[in-house]
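Continuing the series of single-chain predictions for the mutant panel. This is the parent chain; the variants come on the following pages.
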Amino acid sequence: MAYKNKNKIKKQDEPWWITFEKTFLKIEVVALILFLLAAAFYLRPYSAKIGSVHASADKLQALFSDVQSDYPYAQALSYFKVRGLAVADKDGAFHPDEVITRAELLKLVVLASNVQPTFVRYRGCFKDVKAEVFAPSVCYAKSKGIVQGYKDGTFKPLDPISVENALNLITKNFNANPAIGQEATTGLNSSENIKRGLMFELIYELSRHQDFKMQ
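Parent structure:
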């Protein structure tokens, strides 16, 4: 009891301004804590956005072993990789500068249209298109009048296709605006064989402005 009275007397002996400063200091500490909590709450969306940007950049840099973030068509390849259409080989390389074939172009165009033809119905539509992995896409395209093949009854699926012919095939048969594709190929030699990276870029640019649907 004597101890409590001693502390009470000591507290009463303190000048009023010291008591005021101690109380004000406590208020400042509480206010600072509340401010930090509020700041953390309101800045949370921005932090998440920044983290998402960094995550996207890291994902883009690690897209393929031979495709860096500064590759002109990296965004298109990233888009189709997520959809499972741009696939690397066993070594993790994509080979974007490799010339593609007529069959590969048709396969990507058909799959990008959310169509998955099966071997049961679509195969054996040309002399040189029987039951290969690309047969459903090629035969489906033929059934829709997209391709006709050659007079000798062949399609030549493993032959390359020029930039011009690829662009015409995509824009005409998918009712897309030709100007969009032409803009993506500005400065390129249209008679050259189209490469994998450019092929994905063309379909990506057109798909952003047009809902791909087979007619």
